[in-house]
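Hey, quick one: can you model this chain's 3D structure?
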Amino acid sequence: MRVWVDLGLLALADHWKVALGGVTILVVVVVGTLLFGVLGSDTAAADLTSTTSVQPTAVPDTVSTPVPTPVAKLAPTPLPKANPTSSRKMIDPIVLLTNVNVPIHLTGAENIGSLEFVLTYDPSVLEVSGVEAGGLAQSALFDFGTRSPGHLWAGFIDSEGINGDGPIAVVSFKVVGPGASTSLLALENITTYDASSLLDILTNATSGSFTVDGRALTAPTLAFPR
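Sure thing. Here's the predicted structure for all 226 residues.
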């Protein structure tokens, strides 16, 4: 730019025509310079614009809120109703099977060589399970048997004679009757002989009983009045 100014001043000093031509040239140069500056700035702006173009930023879609799935409600199942049953009449319960020992007592026995009798009882209440010789018959021959339900036969033989008071036999019964039941215990068909004379001996029998409730027992007794 300084060169062009010096040329203009030189032209003014030599000749006005030369100066006029220099001015013209100066104007052309200035205008060209301005045009070049404008075009250059536009090109640089265009290059800058194309170089620094901003890419659009992807915006994520709004996350949709999950909608809860409605849960089907189960209708309650009606429970079956129990039909009331008619109450049954309670019967008298059978007691648990237990045993009872019934002694057969002798009172005033004297020189008894042989003795036999039949003990009767209620078979719906009692059931014979065994018979043992009592204290007065430890040295005697002894036998027994149930000839029919409710009847027990027993026999004793002692050549030395049976004497005194006490049990001649002990009968074991199984209790099979209900709680309120009672069985009579009676001595029948009694036969007694003396060990020395073999004569009959008079006897007096007293019946006994057994009640299931409370296990109340009265032993049958065989007395010998003299």
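One thing worth noting: The two ends are 186 Å apart (CA to CA).
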